[in-house]
Write a structure and sequence with these properties.
Layout: H1 14-66, H2 70-81
């Protein structure tokens, strides 16, 4: 069995270790901000689509019931008097 010996290791200065750690934190933070912004934009897009659809549906419902309403007949009567 061959004997293994520990060879000389290079010592990493504290300033270099702090610099590496700071770059890693900054990179992770920027990635998380990009992901968070993407999710927020996707949710805003979805909500705008759903809100537009709800508005169009309510306008269709309003129009379908409007011609039989009393207010519509009142407006027609006022218009014919003009």
């Amino acid at each position: 069995m061959a004997s293994s010996t520990i060879q000389r290791q290079i010592s990493l200065p504290i300033s270099k270790a702090v610099e590496i750690a700071w770059k890693s934190i900054r990179l992770r933070l920027s990635r998380s901000l990009v992901v968070t912004a993407s999710i927020a934009l996707a949710i805003a897009f979805l909500l705008s689509i759903l809100a537009g659809e709800a508005i169009v549906d309510s306008m269709r419902d309003w129009k379908s019931g409007f011609e039989t309403s009393t207010r519509y007949t009142q407006l027609l009567a006022e218009r014919s008097r003009l």
